[in-house]
Write a structure and sequence with these properties.
single chain, mainly alpha, two-stranded antiparallel sheet, globular
């Protein structure tokens, strides 16, 4: 009985930590709704009790609001995007930040290519928004979240929450929200490239050719490493 209880706590803790990282990093924006409880059960491969426990913990932390028969709403505000960021402190850590981006370039193409085998691409939550994003120029300080959310969907579809948690954690340590925002004036052509590279990734995923998927992802990660990291 004790082992069973420990296992249930571990499952709910894993869901809680993964969703918390998504919210804190900005992947789940203020005012957006989390997937429904049944959808979370399906995504994480757990029972309703584990999901409800995780959501209760998030609510107690002040990250979400819940209501009867309504999907949870994110109420956490991303202070990093709303306040002036300490550029100097980030620059002082550029070596460690670059190491995170290099790690993502090294491992994420293989992981995402593997997980894509388990997902129906057009059925993913953020597929439609990502398609629209690649077609229309809608520059934004939060533009990094569009492909990021789609990649996260692919990882979750594998049924292994550890992979999705790893991805979110790498983005957080890589200062993804801040770096994309602060580079806006430095990389006028970068946004166009990002949209084109994600478009290539979508085409490869729909064609179902793993090597093409991996190649397009490798290219994407190689060229989205922050400019100042590559030049200094």
């Amino acid at each position: 009985m004790r082992c069973l209880l420990d296992e249930k706590r571990t499952r709910s803790s894993s869901i809680h930590e993964n969703l918390r990282e998504q919210i804190i990093s900005g992947l789940r924006e203020y005012g957006s709704r989390l997937p429904s409880a049944p959808q979370l059960c399906k995504s994480y491969g757990v029972g309703m009790r584990a999901v409800r426990t995780a959501l209760k913990a998030l609510k107690e932390e002040g990250l979400i609001e819940t209501g009867e028969r309504r999907r949870a709403v994110v109420v956490y505000r991303d202070s990093l995007m709303e306040q002036s960021a300490d550029v100097q402190s980030i620059l002082q850590r550029k070596s460690s930040v670059l190491a995170v981006y290099q790690t993502m370039e090294l491992i994420m193409p293989d992981i995402l290519t593997f997980c894509a085998q388990f997902s129906g691409i057009i059925e993913l939550e953020h597929y439609d928004s990502t398609m629209k994003w690649t077609m229309y120029h809608r520059d934004s300080l939060r533009r990094w979240r569009v492909p990021s959310a789609f990649f996260h969907d692919i990882l979750v579809s594998s049924g292994n929450p550890l992979l999705a948690s790893l991805y979110t954690t790498l983005e957080m340590y890589g200062e993804a929200p801040f770096l994309t925002a602060c580079q806006r004036s430095m990389q006028l052509n970068q946004y166009k490239f990002e949209r084109q590279s994600v478009s290539y990734i979508l085409d490869a995923l729909k064609a179902g050719k793993p090597q093409d998927v991996r190649d397009s992802l490798t290219s994407h990660y190689r060229y989205t490493t922050p400019v100042w990291c590559r030049k200094h």
